[in-house]
Amino acid sequence: MNYDKNIGKIFDDRYRINRVVGEGGMAVVYEATDLSSGKRVAVKMLKESISDNTQALRRFINESKAVAMLNHPNIVKIVDVSVKTEHKFIVMEYIKGITLRDYMNKKVKLGWQEATAFIAQILQALDHAHMKGVIHRDIKPQNIMVMEGGIIKVADFGIAKIPNAETVTMVDHAVGTIYYISPEQAKGKKIDARSDLYSLGVMFYEMVAGQLPFMAESSYAIMHMHINDAPKPPKEHVPQLPLGVEQIILCAMEKEPNKRYQSASQMHRHILRIQQDPTLIFQRQTPPRTPTAEVAIQRTTRNTDTSDKEETSVKTVRKPTPTPTKPAKPKNPTGASAHGNRTEKGSSAAVKRKGAPVYVPFSVVIVICVAFLLLAAVGFFVIFQVLYHAKMSEFYTAFTQAFQNLHDIITLRTGMKFL
User: Fold this and answer.
1) Which is the catalytic residue, given 86, 148, 166, 217?
2) Protein fold of 12-94
């Protein structure tokens, strides 16, 4: 169809169409001039062939509502909406750039530093949207705009899930989505913000590996792989990829949402950490019981030298570096390790956890009490002896002195002397 026919026309007495920028499955995007401000804008116009399609129109209106709720530098802004006339269109800020899909096609494979820079911006946009209750549901390179200077803009909220609105289905929408669909989406189950994170993980995988994690001849086969198959670790495609980056990707692509990142902000924090120190390796402890609790990184099969398998509050370790040898601590006779937090292999002795109450057997209490009483009795006897002998000594001294005085008096008076 010839979309150039609208060039030069003015819609709503305000927007003059300048040129065709691009075409999608449902709409045509024009560059236009806002005559009220003189600024360039992008006019996304629903194709005439489907303008009477109820589903297409609902999706079109849904996009305008979703983006109208959002205000973030990494999300394309909505300026105006017009759906009451013959020509139905959304007016958006004009983005001078190309889609991430075009950018990836040119470069084939992105360096992990550039990829994480892009992913970090998308995560900030998604975090803002999720906080507003908006779930994009169609994260893919075609819906990400790359501007000059590497600035990212998230676009096309056409099938977004928004609060208190009728959900728009995903039947027969833009080609390419099936490659980034989350397992719960593929199974037709209820989705939440973690579904966007899965799609972003797939996109992250493709950016650094130069290929998608799942490829097949049919859409059904690809959906089946998303639901059941584990992706090949991206380091097998890019050996020099930092292990921490691979862990982030695989954690975002977990099949079960509860094992995935639980929020965009959580994944963003890990991206920032790996950007600051590419040698970081993430670990997990026990999985959380609540979906809002912190979930960390799924460790790769190659990182099996430590015993912890999962982490809830984020824990990072650095690659081992030579350290001075410390004197060995004596073995604990109970069989506990030097760290005091786990028993030696094969030992039946229980290890006291830090902060746990200590229980003393009753027999030990009896022995301690008897010993204390005996010690008190001995002490009392010793003190009595000391005091007794001290009194006897004073009595003997006084008696001797009195006898001597009496002897002196008798001698002086009588001249008699006692033997």
Assistant:
1) 148
2) Phosphorylase Kinase; domain 1 (3.30.200)
